[in-house]
Amino acid sequence: MNASSPLRIPVLSSRFLPVWRRNLLVWRKLAAASILGNIADPLLYMLALGYGIGSFIGEVNGMPYVAFIGTGMVCQSAMFTASFEGMYSAFSRMHVQRTWEAIINAPIGLDDVVLAEWLWCATKAVMSTAAILLVLLALGFGHTWHALWLLPLGFVVGLCFGAFGLVMNALAPSYDFFTYFFTLVLTPMLLFSGVYFPVERMPAWLAHIANALPLKHAIDMARPLMLGHAPADVPLHVAVLAGYAAVAYYIALVLTRRRLLK
Amino acid sequence: MAPRTGDPERVNAAADADSALAPRPPGTRAPGAPVLRVEGLRKRYGDAEVVRDLGFSIARGECFALLGPNGAGKTTTLRCCLGLIDPDAGSIELCGWPVPEAAREARVRVGVVPQMDSLDPDFSVTENLVVYGGYFRLPRQVIDARIPRLLEFAGLAAKARVQIRTLSGGMKRRLMLARALINDPELLILDEPTTGLDPQARHLIWDGLRQLLSQGKTILLTTHFMDEAERLATRLAVIDHGSLIASDTPRALLVAHVEPEVVEVYGDEARAWAQARGRALSVRLELAGDTAFCYASDAAPLLADLATRSGLRYLHRPANLEDLFIKLTGRELRD
After folding, report:
1. Cβ neighbours of residue B177 under 8 Å, at least 6 residues apart?
2. pLDDT score, position B333
3. pLDDT-based confidence at B15, cuts 50/70/90?
4. Which of B105, B127, B136 lies at the smallest CB-CB distance from A106?
5. Residue B134 near chain A (CB below 8 Å)
6. Nearest residue of B to residue A97, measured between CA atoms
7. Are the Cβ atoms of A261 and B85 closer than 8 angstroms?
8. Sheet of strand B291-296, all strands in order from the earlier edge strand to the far edge
């Protein structure tokens, strides 16, 4: 493969650090608003549906419904936070503010920038995971060491959806483009991954499709962890999430190189 | 501006290596070697060859201007020099490093002011400099030591803690310039540094650049403002359609390509006068709209004739780079 081909192997180096740190510094200035924005929605759903619908149906899969949906919300918010960061925020930095252009004029490569943005998406996913987990803990759920595994899980979910977001970012002519991703990817993901109800109750063909969705695999691990025991099939779930993440990251990098290095 | 904190050992090592006729390690330059050397550069997008066999070199302490109309290939050339795009052919050596192979190493010694402002709107003036210094892996003490002098240089000492969105266009440009100096670069590259600025702001940028030149910095700039090139450039290259059409000192180019005196004649009758009298009295005459540009080695006969015509207004001036530019690249509009 040609050394200058956009398909060349990704460069992974610690040069991503100052770029990642830049995003952290900006985030610190707006942290309160940012956390609120990331968790307000899932929190409201969790409380309203959890206690509202929960009062009709009681326990689901051995959990009070509010904890059931709350655990789903942890994964959902990791997904939304990372997607949003990979699309809207990355697009602001790449296109509107030209931050990436400024950075690659310094001795930092575009590969370093994309790596930094990718890891930053996952970092933010961990932050919203932590915020919702804290609420669940305050409500009296998940008082078990196993629940702490939700944090690294949030990171992997963030890598997966952050990479999806960065693919969209590389293709986007404007912010409007991201609506497709919400309608075509995130909404189905939300409805068919078992956030609100167990996927096992759906028709078999639908359950099969659900098994291809990365969020489903995150949730399959999150619920047992919340209940304090180790999930089944961890290697499979991790492999699916990591596989989606790695492939999407590579596609995002290739498309971003095509877009900016020409 | 902060004193040079370059790496004297490295420069000496280069000199020693050279005297021993050993191959120079990359990133070191022989004394007197160009800061930037471009040879046979070519870049094609689809069917359009944007850069065609371009070559030039810039010596230490020079201010080299790339002049050309919109779409002439100036920005593409700069991006090739920085290793941000790979040329189809040609060789580039930037600060002793081969580009694009060692572009990142080369960019350690280069400061870049791109065409569009790219300051971080979420940071203050100082924070912008601190964060940018971080991209060069500069220790925090070094960055903190440089910032006051950079702000002083940019006339932003009173704005250190101010948010970017409150700065004027001219201040933002000056901060862009200061930011490009955070690594104390050997070469400063500016892509149309004063486009969109008012005259006061432009003069401030020019003063800053002249100050840098007097401190021995090397500058490469692109511009389509002739007054900018005239004021700053020690040497310039006119490029059009991706090819170099002329390169020399501004004075030598004028002498070589343009008659020394120009008389611009305006008015309804300018065209008729140009055909009847102007052509005969000029070495070269160009018509653009209702204006006749008369180029001459001695404008006295032209002026004597014009003094008798009450219907015409005229301006007598020495030839400048704009005349050269138009002669070399033509009068038609470029978009």
Report:
1. B113, B154, B190, B193, B205, B208, B209
2. 65
3. very low
4. B136
5. yes
6. B118
7. yes
8. B284-288, B291-296, B261-266, B313-318
Q: Which CATH class is domain B259-329?
A: alpha beta
Of B84, B121, B127, the CB nearest to A97: B121
Task: State the alpha helices, DSSP H only, in chain A.
Answer: 16-29, 31-52, 54-57, 65-84, 90-91, 99-105, 110-138, 150-171, 178-181, 187-192, 204-210, 214-227, 234-260
B183 alpha-carbon distance from chain centroid:
20
Are A101 and B137 an interchain contact pair (Cβ–Cβ within 8 Å)? no
Question: What would the mean pLDDT of A59-82 be, rounded to a whole number?
Answer: 92
pLDDT attached to residue A226: 93
Residue ranges of domains in chain B: 28-254, 259-329
Can you give the pTM of this predicted structure?
0.90
Phi first, then psi, for residue A222 (nearest 5°) are: -65, -40
Q: pLDDT category, B289, cuts 50, 70, 90?
A: confident
How does residue B24 score in pLDDT terms, banded at 50, 70 and 90? low
Nearest residue to B244 via CA among B83, B79, B56, B113: B56
Residue type, A230: A
Whether residue B104 and residue A108 make contact (CB cut-off 8 A), yes or no, is yes
Q: Indicate which of A105, A113, A258, A260 best probes the interface with B, i.e. most B CBs within 10 Å of its own CB.
A: A105
Q: Which of the four pLDDT bands, split at 50, 70 and 90, describes residue A35?
A: confident
Classify domain B28-254 at the CATH topology level.
Rossmann fold (3.40.50)
**Chain A interface includes B105 (CB < 8 A):** yes
Chain A residues whose C-beta is within 8 A of a chain B C-beta are 4, 18-19, 21-22, 25-26, 29-30, 97-99, 101-109, 261-262
| pLDDT at position B10 | 41
Distance from CA of B113 to the nearest CA of A (A): 9
Mean pLDDT of A161-187: 96
CB < 8 Å to B127, chain A: 25
Residue B176 has pLDDT above 80, yes or no: yes
Which has the closest alpha carbon to B52: B198, B192, B242? B242
- What count of CB pairs under 8 Å joins A to B? 63
Q: Name the band, by pLDDT with cuts 50, 70 and 90, for residue A14.
A: very high
| φ and ψ at residue B244, rounded to 5 degrees | -80, 125
pLDDT digits (tens, 9 = 90+) for B29-70: 677 789 999 999 999 998 889 999 999 999 999 999 999 888
CB nearest B86 (choices: A4, A29, A107)? A4
Nearest chain A residue to B50 by CA: give it. A262
pLDDT class for B6, splitting at 50, 70, 90? very low
Minimal-distance CA residue of chain A relative to B127: A25
